[in-house]
Design brief:
Two copies of one chain form a homodimer.
Chain A lengths: L25 E4 L6 H16 L5 E3 L11 E6 L2 H6 L10 E6 L4 E6 L2 H15 L10 E3 L5 E5 L19 E2 L2 E2 L3 H12 L4 E3 L18 H12 L4 E5 L4 H4 L11 H17 L5 E4 L16 H10 L7 E5 L19 H6 L10 E6 L14 H4 L5 E6 L15 H9 L10 H5 L10 E5 L15 H12 L5 H13 L3 H11 L2 H8 L37 E2 L19 H6 L9 H4 L2 E2 L10 H24 L7 H33 L11
Parallel strand pairs in A: 1-2, 1-3, 3-5, 7-10, 7-16, 10-11, 11-12, 12-13, 13-14, 14-15, 15-16
Antiparallel strand pairs in A: 4-5, 4-6, 8-9, 17-18
Chain lengths: 678, 678
């Protein structure tokens, strides 16, 4: 038995529901499918553990509907439901929940078992807000078709960029399947996740064999657990698998032998796991193999794989994180930010229908602040996933509070001006171009820590990610407050206090870390903690070029790398000039003198000093607020979180002092407020 | 059978000795002792493999000396020898070598077998210069009593700061004893090493057990091989051994139980290995345990150990490398350079006779340039070892050529003004205060690489270290040229060429690395390659404080940390002022503006630019010179060294560009010569 807590599924009996404690006597269902047992079980738990009633009876062979009463009815959506719900159509994964007062019956109706499962979770979510069943009325369906999680778990048991312990899928090259696997699937279903890749995109030696008989039966066991929660399982594959397995000498996508190899491998895989999701691929990046080795394009590479699984309904997810990671820091012309666009824009329209390009939100790499990747506005005839990182690699590594939903919302709302449906949301929801295969992928922040996410408050990011994907209309605040309710209960003081802490925590984090969008300034390799020149003379293409006069990267067309031109108008014009570039991205696009005056009226150098002092003060206030929760919440979570908040404060001070000292020494400019700079 | 080359013992028949090929028919000996067999074997090899003669007969039972002829005679030094050699007295380890023309007999005379062994190696060294036996006349004895090597080998097989492969003493927690062990002892004896500590001063879990029966029998086997070459074996011990072995709860040096524990351990150790050398201890430093834990002094700690081995003739070598490695970079008052002096000066006179303090050459840590540690001039009533690092941790890691003997010679010649015998050489030779226990310890640069030292030219440092300790009057050039002859033969062109490359290589290295004595600027942890701010905001007390106006550490009494006052006059006065501080140490002692004019007439900033360009040019010239040796030396060594030289060039360019760019960006000052700075 794995040891773990239940995060936001920690059901507790609610006083608010006392009045309906004896109302739900039977759960009726006439829907069939893999998820139905789990949906019914979840409802049973809800009745006993949230409402506090006796365990309800189960009736899964409903014959005469008109006789149903005093319970919950899971049903296939029909014309009557449509009429009752203003013409709402649930589609693949939507649901309607409504109350039949005559028969004291909560109806959860959907087109299939997955819709029912989501409906059940939605019903429970509302129960846990303290709503009586008779008050719950929902007609919802997901805005984003693919709501995916990418695990960067390695079979050794470690997690690349994992900050919540080790993997719960693997230990020492063995696959783990236990009660935690089941609970994880349940948790993910509860927030609407419907696809999960269970191994790192950097596919090492042993992981290359996940698609072979050595591991396939165990992968199928995980797949089946996932399937019973409506989740498709994906595997990251090694593009050079036939070579690494010493079966072929090349992995050229146009080579007949290679094509046959993959056809055979895929056919066998789908023979064992007929409902398998597909392949996730990181190719020709950071040392990974790929089609470039053979002079082929990424379209050649992706399509070859895709054609071996198309007939089974499988998809290929192909990452666009391709750049030269052996850059010379002396070379100021090459610009890593340009790389994804430069590599992929010419291939628009060349990818098969079951291929999707997975594009990181920004052009570089999950920094606390980046412009939106210009590929979203560039590609028109290609399936696209937005990739975000729930794991806080550059945003405090789950030792700092950094609620990321506001950042992701900004990205989704960014208008690329590619068409009149030009927001990223419209593009990755399929609305813009009508794609079937599009969505959002998040690099998960989970691990085998008892609380799943290391920092308890990082649960808001995982929960929020799923909820945001399902319902993009929810605001970041609505999502945060919803999570707080699910996690900590219905108390308003707790809700307000926790929200005060997490609500703006991303902006707080930004204040004490790299200024004005310039990024990096972290310790190399582990990416934690400040190191202003940490990457400045390295090979990764991540520079700030600070000198005694100014700082920032000139990415203009006029005098810089020309990156700004990868955007559609008006962005390309706005980013070309400092005056029209938003302050928060100024140093991403321009090398500016320290005495340049920002929109805020402050000089850059004074902005740096001020924000860094403010950032630390805001963390101090977070701690004060958290301390008000002592005795009001689970003491284990209280102490655990207080420890991390204290570490965050120390780290924030280190950031403040290093950044301020660095720029003070470099610029020679005094702080106008005369505060301590070392 | 281990695979290794013979370094400077790669005996080859010399044409120059053709004339005496048949002269040595018998090796006579009337000296007894552990080293005699090895001395005779070495001579046999010399006759066959250097002179090219037939294997000589051996006569070890000399009865009538007047009948000896046509050979070599190893004998106990007596009054006749003294008269023949101008009253020379060989002492413990000296020897006389002279030729008895009447009987065509080379005489090697000494007070004991160890002196004979050194005499044999000295005779051979001269043979290999092409000298005929009849021309060899020597009366030599070592200047330094303890000529020690410290291995930082761990039992896992790795070597801390090892750049020549793994350990040849250990592999995967097993002790290795093979033909390489034997050859190593022979090599070390050939350069006069007489003490070796075979495990890292950072004594980890398993190494703590080296003094126990788990490993003692194998340690004894190494000890006996060493003894047959006149070398004393030492072990680094864990000060907390009784605690780590879970036998006691404290390791307080004044605790009766602790004293008993060590008495018992030492008694048993000397019971198994009666001629064991003693203990080497790193205590209260960089996380190692020590007497501070119990509020005791280092004298308490060292004396306690020393008293457990005094009766067996054992010594305790106690390192002075004690400092706070958790410093706050914001704190500009604390100065790591002060630490060794501050910790130990108050204990002068408190250490037992069989305790010696091992003092690193400089106050910080083996930087390419440091002032000499003020402890040498401070302690008056304490035994002292000078510790140098043959391993090139901060001097190119055996990927760069950096001949270190010139640096060590400067250190030995440094006048501390502690007395009229105030040079470091006079202090560590015992001349100044008449100590029995004093000497030099070198952290070795060896490993299981086929050529022992990784870089072939690093052999000059190992060889040179031993020869310099034995004969401090030899110049760095004499030592270098002697090594070249032993390694590459008697060819003058080769000698000149190799000497041209290595002779000034330390100064070349200094040119392209941290300027004017400021030190560090390396990548953290591995210490290889440039990273100007690598340690600037870290906890190690190693800063340069560069800002837009200047750079350097103020260690004056007037305005800085006061470190300069740790020296005797006139150094304390000279170091107090920039004008009287030698240029090469200027930034070690002072924070100076970039436009300060050096003795050389250049500003600091222009000096930085110039030396960094020059350094790279000098490496380019090294490569040109080396290429002239193609076809003239062993092609394996030629290619191996060329590879490293090419790597050195790339690395030197990286140093040049990073340092120049860093200071250009920081100072905003143009290079007067308009060269490329990025």
């Amino acid at each position: 038995m794995a040891v773990f807590e239940k995060a936001w599924l920690n059901y507790r009996v609610l006083k608010e529901l006392e009045g309906c404690r004896n109302d739900i006597k039977v759960i009726f269902s006439d829907v069939k499918g893999k998820c139905i047992d789990n949906a019914i079980n979840e409802l049973k738990l809800a009745v006993t553990d949230i409402i506090g009633g006796d365990e309800p009876g189960i009736c899964t062979c409903v014959r005469i509907v008109s006789e149903l009463s005093d319970g919950i009815y899971l049903k296939l959506y029909n014309d009557d439901d449509k009429e009752l719900n203003d013409g709402f159509e649930p589609g693949e994964e939507g649901y309607a929940v409504y109350y039949d007062a005559d028969n004291r019956l909560t109806v959860i109706a959907a087109d299939n078992d997955r819709g029912i499962l989501y409906g059940v979770f939605a019903f429970i979510r509302n129960l846990r807000k303290g709503m009586l069943p008779s008050d719950i009325r929902l007609t919802e369906k997901p805005d984003i078709t693919f709501r995916m999680l990418d695990h960067w778990d390695n079979m050794y048991g470690d997690i690349e960029r994992g900050y919540s312990g080790n993997s719960f899928f693997y230990d020492n090259y063995r696959i783990i399947i236990d009660d935690r696997t089941e609970f994880y699937a349940r948790m993910m279903a509860s927030i609407g996740i419907n696809a999960i890749a269970i191994n790192n995109v950097n596919v090492h030696q042993e992981e290359t064999l996940l698609i072979t008989d050595k591991y396939l039966n165990e992968v199928k066991r995980i797949n089946d657990i996932f399937a019973s929660y409506g989740i498709k399982l994906y595997l990251s594959v090694n593009y050079a698998a036939p070579v690494e397995m010493v079966e072929l000498e090349v992995s050229d996508p146009l080579d007949e032998g290679v094509i046959e190899w993959w056809k055979k491998a895929s056919a066998h895989l789908y023979d064992v796991i007929p409902d398998f999701g597909g392949y996730l691929v990181k190719a020709d990046s950071e040392g990974r193999p790929g089609p470039f080795t053979y002079g082929r394009t990424h379209a050649d590479g992706a399509n070859m794989l895709a054609r071996t699984i198309a007939q089974y309904g499988g998809n290929v997810i192909w990452r666009c994180f391709v750049y030269n990671c052996r850059q010379d820091w002396r070379d100021r012309k090459t610009d890593r930010a340009r790389a994804a666009y430069d590599h992929f824009i010419g291939l628009d329209g060349e990818f098969d229908d079951n291929v999707v390009l997975q594009i990181k939100n920004g052009p570089v790499d999950f920094q606390p602040r980046e412009p939106v990747s210009p590929l979203f506005g560039g590609l028109k005839k290609t399936n696209m996933f937005l990739e975000v990182q729930i794991a806080q690699e550059y945003t405090g590594q789950q030792r700092h509070v950094c609620y990321l939903v506001p950042m992701w919302k900004e990205i989704l709302d960014f208008n690329t001006y590619a068409s009149d449906k030009g927001t990223v949301k419209e593009i990755v929801s399929g609305e813009a171009y009508g794609n079937r295969l599009c969505g959002i992928a998040g690099v998960t922040n989970t691990g085998n820590d008892i609380n799943w996410t290391g920092h308890d408050l990082a649960g808001a990011n995982l929960y929020g990610y799923g909820r945001m994907c399902f319902d993009t209309a929810l605001s970041a605040e609505e999502i945060a407050r919803e999570w707080i309710t699910q996690e900590f209960g219905t108390d308003k003081f707790i809700n307000d206090t926790v929200y005060d802490i997490i609500g703006n925590s991303w902006l707080t984090y930004e204040k004490y870390t790299p200024p004005l969008g310039v990024g990096w300034m972290v310790n190399p390799s582990n990416h934690y903690g400040p190191n202003v020149d940490g990457y400045e003379y390295d090979r990764w293409g991540t520079y700030h070029f600070a000198d005694c006069k100014g700082v920032g990267v000139d990415r203009t067309v006029a005098t810089g790398t020309g990156y700004a031109s990868q955007y559609n108008k008006p962005w390309s014009d706005r980013y070309e000039k400092p005056e029209t570039t938003p302050d928060e991205l100024l140093l991403f696009f321009h090398h500016m003198d320290y005495d340049y005056v920002l929109d805020s009226g402050k000089t850059i150098i004074q902005h740096i000093y001020d924000t860094h002092f403010e950032g630390v003060e805001e963390v101090e206030r977070m701690i004060d607020k958290w301390k008000k929760l002592e005795g009001k919440i689970n003491p284990v979570i209280y102490e655990r979180t207080l420890d991390r908040l204290n570490e965050q404060l120390e780290s924030a001070k280190e950031w403040r002092d290093r950044i301020n000292t660095y720029f003070y020494r470099k610029s020679g400019t005094e702080d106008k407020k005369g505060r301590t700079i070392y």
